[in-house]
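Supplementary notes (optional reading)

For those who missed the lab, this is the record we used. Protein: Ribosomal RNA small subunit methyltransferase A. Length: 275 residues.
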Amino acid sequence: MSKTHLGHTARKRFGQNFLHDDYVIGKIVAAIAPKNEQNLVEIGPGLGALTDPVCEEVDALTVIELDRDLAKRLRHHPFNGEKLTVIEQDAMTMDFGALSKEMPLKDKKLRVFGNLPYNISTPLMFHLFDHAHCIEDMHFMLQKEVVNRLAAGPGSKNYGRLSVMAQYYCHVIPVLNVPPGAFKPPPKVDSAVVKLVPHQSPPVDVVSVSTLERVCAQAFNQRRKTIRNSLKDSLSEEEIRELGIDPTCRAEVLSLNDFATIANAVSAKESQQEQ
């Protein structure tokens, strides 16, 4: 199969796989349900597989595209060029808070969507979580395994740091599975679409989100270890037990609530040590 699609060659360094299945595209656009009077932002529009049908529904769309050839093509699009605001930038460096202030509808949050390059999807989601306060919802095409990890609960083999942090920030709703044949070139993995809706207020109270992230990273870094071993630099076995948590259990059985309890104990201990 040729890697050239509509005159553009998929670039491996950008992780480009172009969506071309009209049935799948229709399902994704229906899930996003774009409307006028919304601040719509697409990350990585590529050849416009989602851009074009979304533009059929609305009068304005902001797109963030790193590939300069594709950005140029979008600016000169014969039908949608007038509707598009093209930002030629890496989404990883985008200040979505500042972007929301520049949008035409100042009182509305961003609705973000995209077919994310698989090689940056996890760090990009963490970057977006930092801006969750200015985002209404997100619809992303991701590797199916990543969607499974986002949605996983304690006790599942897919459950990990990404699950805990995603669920701290957002309500995670898997939308549909997408086979490799829906793309050119077809990736070697299955894909899926997920909807992420930032919580109005966090489901658990944490003193420091960065401490929560750090504790999750420590706990899941060596999954086979018990938490008394993986967290020994932060809390002693006795300190973990005092929280009502079994120090001999592994990270994968701990709930978001448990991680919040541990993170708050670490924050309290560290603030005492600083005094």
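If you only remember one thing from this example: Confidence is low (pLDDT under 50) at residues 1-15.
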